[in-house]
UniProtKB/TrEMBL annotation:
PANTHER family (alphabetical): GPI ETHANOLAMINE PHOSPHATE TRANSFERASE 2, PHOSPHATIDYLINOSITOL GLYCAN-RELATED
Similarity-based family: Belongs to the PIGG/PIGN/PIGO family. PIGG subfamily.
Protein name: GPI ethanolamine phosphate transferase 2-like
Chain segments carrying region Disordered: 523-542
The gene coding this protein: LOC109475239
Pathway of action: Glycolipid biosynthesis; glycosylphosphatidylinositol-anchor biosynthesis
Main localization category: endoplasmic reticulum
GO cellular component: endoplasmic reticulum membrane
Organism: Branchiostoma belcheri (Amphioxus)
CDD domains noted in UniProt: GPI_EPT_2
The organism's taxonomic lineage, starting at the top: Eukaryota, Metazoa, Chordata, Cephalochordata, Leptocardii
GO biological process per UniProt: GPI anchor biosynthetic process
Annotated GO MF terms: CP2 mannose-ethanolamine phosphotransferase activity
């Protein structure tokens, strides 16, 4: 839609048009199509239905096709082609517009290197040849010649997408074909680049209709080469006059602008040329003078366009300032709450005295902020926001912002009065001392959040943000490795000190848990202790294998090696993923592993890779899932491969490529729904059974008490502990099933070569949860665990090949298994595919917390709080940076796309936080039920 708008209006599309592209409305801005319609031109159209939405009731005949359904690249073009020949034989139209979509869809699906590109270009070449030969033949019998314009609305990146600012995405071909040009054979000497905005005035002047009034385009004079010099000068003068009108409407003091003064000189020169024409000047002199006048007009138009373009960047500073103020207040509240500043900074002060403002102070702050808002809205300076100062919605948003700001202001003032500054400085010094004594990995996690926020102030680091996350992730792994090396001698000494400490009860659970932690054991269950005979046999076996003198040294050596290998595996797999999909501006055009696999000649290798990746994913998830969940995952992965084989992307000899694989994709969706429903039903059923068992056991105990049986002699039902264990298992099955559901969904939505990225991500989750984190201090802090998963998710986002450019969004994922375009479903699927990495790691965090804590809700609150802070700080900082850099050279190509990504990631994160809190309630209730019944036993 933005490019169609630019082609027809001659104006520069705004960046918000990218978001409006999903729901196009009728174009009210003046455009060349409407001008032709008003002039009585009869227009027919076939192709992208966006034209029908932008120009309703403009066409005498039309047949639109859905532009967003990118999985179809045959029917969308056949629907256009079938109308061409019949229309060429009809004399009842003046303009015919054909918008083919197949080439664009192939780019989104398979990229520019696909073998389908060549076939589609041959099809288009045949179609252009048919049209051109027909109109040239018809022009021999007509008074007016036919003009055939062939152009693209956008280019294509090396990844097959568009929307960025790279040359392959912004450069496209523009051809004018007519029987007037060298007797229909065409001309190849005009190859100068032109702006898309120049097409609208060129077509308007060619068809004799007014130039769109807001157009910033310049007429393409080579198209008018066959016209007389007088007509050419008149066309350029009309174009220049229209641009002067735009200059007058947008630039105060326009008469002092260089472009306007050049225009005045061009008008005088044009007047002199007309006088020379009347006086009978020679043709050669008129030609030379005419070229000078044309050049003067063009210089004037270039200056005017540059000046108007610079003035079009208008910003609602009032609304932007209010939004930034609210973000800063929210960030401040979160930071203050995270540090528990009430208890540490203001000792002896009750928390409610700070968190509940004084009514008088609150009212005073409210009227103060309200008066400031009203003053801005009623001022004559032009700063008032149309969004905040008009309409019911605007005043409601203003009232909400004023109320929230008033509360924050009153709390801040109240806190300042209650604060003992000497105590505050002491607390700050103590806090700095504590931070310096933290483990290196903990300190680096906390510093990394701030470093990432600061890095967003550089346009280069915004373009290459993936390098920031790769650096943070790799450095964290290296710090974990260093901590492992440093902890080895101290761990050995601690083991011996525990063995030699006579004051410690070696039969206590605390002692055993410390020993088990040192030995690298994940859990300790006293009910599963081995017998003395089994223990001695195991000890002899371990000593014989390791060749060490004591079992303790052997176990410590094995744990050390296991952890080092696990961290090395994380480093190696992360390096592999970095080379799998090169992203960013610097490395996007470099060949990577994924590019090699998607080549048509490597289809068999890609098929083997996807099969191996799916098998690896199945094995990794099979270790922690139930049989039913593993079975559904296996069936789903087979269905995904079958779907890709049906679409022709993977080699599947048993599959006939007769359709688009819609049935197969929908069967996978069905498996996903069954998997999700089964885990929920299983959890609910087990919980109900447990509650019934508890009730039966209480009834039995009551009956025994009435029979005067002593409490110590009350029998315990054999099914009680069994039901309790079943309930614990059901809770684990539920969260594992939820993760498996996400894994299967991403396997279906991601591009085939990214199946390896998915498998490696699942492998990293297993290694991190089972082999690395339990050995570190991070394992005992929920906020730090949340930070680790946020970092891993952000790195995985870029491992997929994403970047901060709109061009890397894979919109083909939104149409998997769909026959028609449904905006809500397509948007949701595209979002799930784009943010697959963060979603998988967020779900993995939910699984870890649920397994680690019997009552997980408090831990989930801490994790959600940490996630919110890590999202709020960069959003607030980047919003301020973008506002300050709003006149930067790269504001539209770098800062604005990143701002859209930040907003979307914030929405996704908020959804995840809400989901975690909602799931935490029933999981916490189950844990509370287990603890309560255990206490009663």
């Amino acid at each position: 839609m933005p490019r169609i708008k630019g082609l027809t209006t001659g104006s520069i599309p705004g960046f918000v048009d990218i978001a409006l592209n999903l729901d196009s409305k009728a174009l009210v801005e003046d455009n060349v199509i409407t001008q032709m319609y008003r002039a009585g031109r009869r227009i027919v159209f076939y192709g992208d239905d966006t034209w029908l939405k932008l120009f309703p009731e403009h066409f005498v005949r039309h047949d639109g096709t859905t532009s967003f359904f990118v999985t179809d690249y045959t029917e969308v073009d056949q629907n256009v082609t079938r109308h061409v020949v019949p229309e060429l034989s009809r004399p009842d139209w003046d303009v015919m517009i054909l918008h083919y979509l197949g080439l664009d869809h192939i780019g989104h699906l398979a990229g520019p290197t696909s073998s389908l590109i060549g076939l589609k270009l041959q099809e288009m070449d045949t179609m252009v040849e048919t049209i051109h030969s027909t109109v040239v033949e018809q022009d021999s019998e007509r008074a007016l010649p036919t003009l055939l314009v062939l152009c693209g609305d956008h280019g294509m990146s090396n990844a097959g997408s568009h929307g960025g600012a790279s040359a392959p995405e912004t450069l496209t071909t523009l051809l004018f074909l007519s029987s007037l040009f060298s007797e229909g054979k065409g001309s190849s000497h005009v190859t100068s680049p032109v702006y898309q905005t120049g097409l609208a005035p060129t077509l308007a002047l060619t068809f004799g209709v007014p130039v769109p009034q807001n157009s910033l385009g310049q007429v393409m004079t080579p198209v008018l080469a066959r016209s007389s010099s007088r007509d050419q000068l008149q066309a350029v003068q009309i174009n220049a006059y229209q641009l002067v009108r735009v200059l007058q409407a947008n630039v105060p003091g326009y008469n002092r602008e260089a472009g306007y003064q050049l225009y005045q000189q061009a008008v005088k020169m044009h007047s002199g040329w007309l006088k020379a024409l009347v006086t009978g000047e020679t043709a050669a002199n008129l030609e030379t003078l005419g070229q000078r006048v044309t050049q003067q007009y063009r210089r004037a138009m270039e200056k005017i366009v540059d000046r108007v373009s610079a003035s079009l960047s208008e910003y609602d500073m009032h609304a932007m300032a209010v939004g930034i103020a609210l973000l800063v207040q929210v960030s401040s509240i979160l930071i203050a709450a995270s540090g528990k500043f009430v208890a540490e900074v203001v000792p002896g002060t009750d928390s409610w005295m700070v968190y509940i403002p004084s009514p008088i102070l609150l009212l005073s702050s409210f009227f103060l902020v309200l008066s400031a808002q009203v003053s801005v809205c009623t001022s004559a300076t032009g700063w008032a926001s149309a969004e905040l100062c008009s309409g019911k919605a605007g005043w409601f948003m203003s009232f909400a912002a004023v109320t929230f700001t008033s509360v924050c202001v009153s709390l801040t003032i109240q806190s300042l009065f209650l604060t003992n500054w000497r105590t505050l400085l002491s607390a700050a010094a103590y806090g700095l001392h504590m931070c310096c004594s933290l483990p290196w990995e903990t300190m680096f996690l906390l510093m990394g959040v701030g470093l990432h926020t600061v890095s967003l102030g550089s346009s280069s680091l915004v373009e290459e943000e993936h390098q920031t996350w790769y650096f943070l992730q790799t450095t964290l792994f290296l710090l974990l490795m260093c901590s492992t090396l440093q902890a080895l001698p101290s761990t050995t000494r601690l083991r011996h000190s525990l063995e030699q400490d006579t004051d410690v009860d070696k039969e206590s659970d605390i002692y055993k848990q410390r020993i088990s932690l040192l030995e690298g054991e994940q859990k300790y269950d006293h009910r599963k202790e081995k017998t003395d005979k089994e223990s001695s046999q195991a000890e002899e076996k371990v000593q014989s294998e390791c060749g060490l003198s004591t079992r303790e040294d052997c176990v410590l050596d094995q744990g050390f090696v296991r952890k080092m290998v696990a961290v090395l595996a994380l480093l190696v797999t992360s390096r592999l993923l970095r080379s799998w999909n090169q992203t960013g501006i610097v490395s996007a055009d470099r060949p990577d592993i994924g590019d090699w696999f998607v080549r048509p000649e490597n289809k068999m290798y890609l098929s083997l890779l996807v099969a191996a990746s799916f098998f690896t994913t199945f094995l990794l998830r099979w270790r922690s899932c139930s049989f039913s969940s593993s079975f559904l995952l296996g069936v789903g992965l087979i269905g995904v491969y079958h779907y890709r084989g049906k679409t022709g992307v993977l080699a599947a000899p048993w599959v006939l490529h007769t359709d688009k694989g819609i049935l197969e994709a929908r069967l996978v969706y069905l498996v996903i729904i069954i998997q999700l429903c089964w885990t929920c039903v299983e959890l609910f059923k087990t919980w109900c059974q447990h509650l019934q068992t508890v009730k039966d056991d209480e009834n039995l105990a009551g009956n025994r008490l009435r029979d005067h049986v002593p409490k110590n002699n009350l029998p315990t039902t054999q099914s009680f502990y069994k039901e309790k264990e079943n309930l614990k298992d059901a809770r684990k099955i539920f969260v594992d099933g939820l993760l498996t559901t996400f894994v299967l969904s991403e396997a279906l939505l991601l591009r085939p070569h990214n199946a390896t990225v998915l498998a490696v991500t699942v492998f990293q989750q297993y290694v991190l949860h089972e082999l690395v984190l339990p050995w570190t201090t991070l394992y005992h802090s929920v906020p730090l665990l949340a930070l680790v998963h946020v970092w891993m998710g952000q790195a995985a986002f870029y491992f997929q090949g994403n970047s901060n450019s709109i061009a890397t969004i894979d919109i083909s994922a939104g149409y998997v298994g769909m026959e028609d375009y449904v905006q809500e479903i397509a948007g949701t699927l595209t979002c799930l595919s784009t943010y697959a990495g963060p979603l998988l790691w967020f779900t993995s965090l939910l699984v870890l917390i649920t397994k680690k804590y019997p009552r997980p809700y408090p831990a989930m609150l801490q994790a959600c709080f940490a996630i919110i802070i890590t999202r709020t700080l960069p959003v607030t900082g980047y919003t301020v940076i973008t506002t300050l850099q709003r006149y930067h050279l790269f504001v539209w190509s770098v800062f604005s796309p990143k701002l859209l990504y930040e907003g979307m990631l914030t929405a996704v994160t908020a959804s995840v936080v809400v989901l975690m809190l909602c799931l935490g309630v029933p999981l916490h209730m189950i844990g509370a039920t287990l603890d309560l019944t255990h206490a009663r036993r």
